[in-house]
Structures are given as structure tokens and as C-alpha cells.
Automatic annotation (TrEMBL):
It comes from the Bacteria. This is Roadblock/LAMTOR2 domain-containing protein.
Length: 122
């Protein structure tokens, strides 16, 4: 099992997680993915790469120099967490985590996501 697959396995083990992917921001391609969120995970990964690129472009236009820790999208029955990786070896990648809103603890999931993100390497 590759290191990316191992990281995705750790993410999907988070209570309430239904899917996870590690995604290339530029292409929108999932380098590793797992789970069954009830929709096409590859399409979601590609679409969320547009979200990340738009936010990075807006930050650049505003002259904001900080890094994105995460982006939270709250739906009726799901949380979608996007964690932009910032280590030199993982620049250009993000983690996409889908959580069931009824069974996940958002604070704990963000904490665990942050811990996994620190260990991701390509």
C-alpha cells in the first residue's frame, strides 16, 4: 500500500467519514481515494480543485500571503473539508474529506485531518 493510500485509509477511519481523496490542485485528479459518499468522488475532487484555485487566486489578488489551512463546505447532511497541503513535498495537493453531518464530530475530524495532513508525503 502506498503512503497516499495509507493516508486515505486513516482519513476514512475518522468517525463519520464517508470518503477521502488526495487531489492534485492543477489537474483535479485524485492521486488516492477511498469511500462511498453517494456521489462520484472523482468528479467532486476535480470540482473542488476549482474551489481551491479560485480561493488561491482571490488571496493573491488581495495581497494575502498566508496559507489556507482548510476550507469547510457545509451541506444539509454532509461536511466537506478541504485541507491544502503546504509542505515542500506536497505543495500543489489537497486532502478532500467527506463527513456525514449526523455522525461526525467536526472538531475532532478537523484535528485528525490536520494530523494526517502533516504525515502525507509523495
Amino acid at each position: 500500500m502506498s503512503q497516499l493510500d495509507q493516508s486515505v485509509a486513516e482519513l476514512t477511519a475518522i468517525e463519520g467519514a464517508t470518503a477521502a481523496a488526495i487531489v492534485d490542485i492543477g489537474s483535479g485528479m485524485a492521486l488516492a481515494a477511498s469511500g462511498n459518499p453517494g456521489f462520484n468522488l472523482d468528479v467532486a475532487a476535480a470540482g473542488n480543485s476549482n474551489v481551491v484555485r479560485a480561493k488561491l487566486n482571490t488571496m493573491r489578488e488581495l495581497g494575502l500571503t498566508g496559507a489556507i489551512d482548510d476550507i469547510l463546505i457545509t451541506l444539509e447532511d454532509q461536511y466537506h473539508l478541504i485541507n491544502v497541503l503546504s509542505e515542500e513535498s506536497t505543495q500543489g495537493l489537497f486532502i478532500y474529506l467527506v463527513l456525514n453531518k449526523n455522525t461526525a464530530n467536526l472538531a475532532l475530524a478537523r484535528h485528525r485531518l490536520s494530523n494526517v495532513a502533516k504525515k502525507v508525503s509523495v
